[in-house]
Design brief:
Elements (H helix, E strand, L loop, with lengths): L13 H16 L1 H5 L7 H10 L2 H20 L9 H16 L7 H24 L2 H26 L17 H19 L6 H18 L2 H17 L3 H24 L1 H11 L4 H6 L7 H12 L15 H11 L8 H31 L6 H14 L5 H4 L3 H14 L19 H7 L12
Helix pairs in contact: 1-4, 1-7, 3-15, 4-6, 5-16, 5-19, 6-19, 7-8, 7-19, 8-9, 8-10, 8-17, 10-17, 11-12, 14-15, 14-16, 16-17, 17-19
């Protein structure tokens, strides 16, 4: 499958949209049996399932990787070019993931995970060098919207829709948490596109509202909170410096007042806990203090990680039978470390964790620096802020073949490994050309631009 290079802001690569939709529907379908909250499996069963893999997922990812490789070869690498510290950190992380094959505790699981990582990475680089950020926002919007529609149809066809049941969570094609990630991508992309589209502004905002409704139905609390924060960041960056200061002041004042009221009012505390339970009943409220069982799991993971703190146990080895039995039996959680950062420390050691965190921080800083010249960088910042926060409590968002994960890799490649697009960017409306002082204020005066220029 070979697609042309799209060079205008209004072009939507529909062939690519359809191709990616099919790929990730097939790639994530397997998670229905692995991640169903009502389906309890043992550590041995889960490890064996992961070890055997999924044929449909392997075929889908092979097609994805083949598309990326052929596209890059045909275009002779496109416009790949590492950009400063962010690009170096990303390359070092990728190399460390691959090198972990040398010391992995489970060669079969790590080799499969690295192959998946390479296939997604090659395709991400190919797409990042082909499309502009605005086109990527449109691709993300349409894929997440179509996935949501298919998920609603699946719920209705299977007869699993049950609003009256407190334990029910909207899932559709995926686990409820992954479905929440899909809704998050829909919301962020729709609201970003609505800010610059006069003709379809109402449509995008309605779509974002629908995304919020279904995100609430997934009962994914962390995802919803991260989306709200990411949209607040998007809103702040779209303002002038003076208005941004006012917005931050009002936001902090309102938050402080609310927290003070909660601290002194027992009744308000009960309302907050009921709301935070997201309709999951008394069990959901009781799980808030332990972060839904994550704290004991993290304690076990940290203790296990400190045995090999420098390089860890190898990429994706949490899912090996030895690690699962050692960690999950005491804590009761078996599917993942439920934190991308702690999971990286466990699997890749402190070296891998440093590379990952540096990649995220440098990428966001580089995108912030470019916001003045290209308003579509706001989409990149919003998605990366949402992902980096959500990864504090979820690890699959970093490692598994969901479209939301793939979008994150595309944006990292777009910012860190590609040259500036020759397509005219959309400058921020409140910034005039040549005002260098405004550029410095716009990014809070914290970004030394000369360190991150292409």
């Amino acid at each position: 499958m070979m697609l042309k290079r799209y060079s205008t802001e209004t072009d939507i690569p529909w062939q690519l949209v359809l191709f990616l939709l099919v790929v990730f529907v097939l790639a994530t379908w397997n998670h229905l049996s692995l991640s169903d909250s009502n389906n309890v499996v043992s550590a041995d069963e889960l490890a064996e399932t992961v070890r055997n893999g999924s044929i449909q997922r392997e075929i889908a990812l092979l097609c994805l990787g083949a598309y990326g490789l052929v596209d890059l070869i045909r275009r002779r690498g496109g416009s790949i070019h590492p950009n400063g510290a962010a690009g170096v950190a990303l390359i070092c992380y990728a190399l460390w993931v691959c090198v972990s094959l040398a010391w992995t505790a489970d060669l079969q699981i790590t080799s499969r995970a690295i192959a998946r990582f390479i296939l997604m990475g090659v395709a991400a680089i190919a797409i990042a060098s082909k499309l502009t950020l605005r086109q990527l926002a449109k691709v993300a919007f349409h894929i997440s919207m179509f996935t949501l529609c298919l998920s609603v149809i699946a719920e209705l066809v299977w007869g699993s829709w049950n609003l009256a049941n407190p334990a029910w969570r909207f899932s559709g094609l995926m686990h409820p948490v992954a479905e929440g990630w899909n809704c998050a991508v829909l919301i962020i992309s729709a609201l970003h596109l609505s800010n610059s589209s006069q003709r379809f502004r109402r449509f995008y905002r309605i779509a974002a509202g629908v995304g919020f409704v279904f995100l609430a139905l997934t009962k994914s609390r962390m995802t919803l909170g991260c989306v709200v924060f990411a949209l607040f960041v998007h809103f702040l960056l779209s303002l002038t410096a003076s208005r941004r200061i006012t917005a931050v002041f009002l936001g902090l004042s309102g938050s402080g007042t609310f927290l003070a009221a909660v601290a002194i009012s027992r009744q308000l505390q009960e309302y907050v806990f009921e709301g935070a339970a997201f309709g999951r009943g008394a069990e959901g409220q009781a799980s808030i203090v332990s972060l839904t069982g994550r704290l004991p799991l993290w304690g076990e993971c940290l203790e296990y990680s400190l045995r090999h703190p420098l390089h860890g146990y190898g990429y994706n080895t949490f899912l090996s039978s030895n690690t699962l039995l050692a960690i999950s039996d005491p804590s009761g959680w078996m599917s993942s470390p439920h934190s991308a950062y702690l999971g990286t420390f466990l699997e890749l050691g402190i070296v891998g964790l440093v590379f990952l965190v540096a990649t995220i921080i440098f990428t966001i800083r580089l995108s912030l620096y470019r916001v003045v010249a290209d308003q579509d960088q706001l989409f990149c910042v919003s998605v990366l802020v949402w992902m980096s926060m959500n990864m504090a409590l979820e690890s699959f968002l970093l490692t598994d073949p969901f479209f939301s994960t793939f979008l994150g890799w595309i944006l990292l490649a777009r910012v860190n490994l590609t040259r500036r697009s020759k397509t005219p960017a959309r400058p921020a409306q409140h910034v005039t050309a040549g005002h260098k002082s405004e550029r410095n204020v716009y990014c809070g005066g914290l970004i030394p631009g000369h360190l991150f220029l292409d």
